[in-house]
TrEMBL record:
It comes from the Bacteria. InterPro entries: ABC_transp_permease, LivM-like. One of its GO terms (cellular component) is plasma membrane. This is Amino acid/amide ABC transporter membrane protein 2, HAAT family. CDD domains: TM_PBP1_LivM_like. It comes from Pseudoduganella namucuonensis. Signal peptide: none annotated. It is found in: Cell membrane.
Amino acid sequence: MMQTKPSLLRISVALPLSLFGALILLPFVAHAMEQPFYVVFTARVVIYAVAATSLNLALGYGGLVSFGHALFLGLGAYSVAIPAFYGIDNGWIHLLVCIVACGLVGLVTGAISLRTTGIAFIMITLAFAQMGYFVFVSLKHYGGDDGTTISATSKFFGCDLGQPNTIYACALTVLALATWWMARLRVSPFGMVLRGAKMNARRVNAIGLPARRYLLSAYVLSAILCGIAGMLLANLNAFASPSTLSWIVSGDLIVMVVLGGLGAVHGALLGAAALMGMEEAIKHFTEHWMAIFGPAIVLIALLGKAGIAGFLAGIDARLARGRAGGVWLVRKTAGEQP
């Protein structure tokens, strides 16, 4: 009887793993080519992938359409900028300020926002982000609308995150850990309750599990992770600006999550790489890149409603059906019972 070996690795898993492998090798290739721009640009992609991963926790797992996650990205950036203004370059202090600020703001704004649903939730999160934007614009002591330069970037164990290769390695490590954590969380009891609350919160409440409390926990964790991404972004740019808190940034994060695949473990990385890579590629051809970029995003969204991860999963399904049909045909030809 003929035996068929199962596929060792699905495309939906192989492609993201290959992408991670390429990201690990990229600094060495860029150094050999003497093109430091690639390291800086890809570091930005990785950092936004971390921010999109945080939103994927709230939106993809919990169904919370937050249009205000730029608030936490900005808080993370100013958690570096404000201590640095006073000459504090200790990264652990920056990280502590980031976690406490984003955690508390996430707890307060989440508790208020979760009293609503649907479009009201979207508008309230957007309102909180705009409030944060105008607060930092009014802080003239720290540059106001012009932002502030960061002269003392975060230092951990003597490593300066102001160096492109160092911030790249740190951001990639954070993204890898966040992706692994999302994969574990997805199949954990906490993650299952979140996904259940996304589908039907009333049923989750009916079996004795407080859906709102789980959703609030996810929102706070999401805020903290997004703040860490903002902290990394501030070190990469050596600059913090209220524009980081703009609703446009929140919209970009939502596009990344949807484009990569809602609730997909690797969706944030795929979406960030596709969105920012396509934007950079179009910029090389025309200065009117936005006129092409917008319709391109709409077209991609229409062709693949489940995102890139869903498209890859569909290929896996078709290949699996093809293999199953091939096994059936071989067994039939050999006179075996299928």
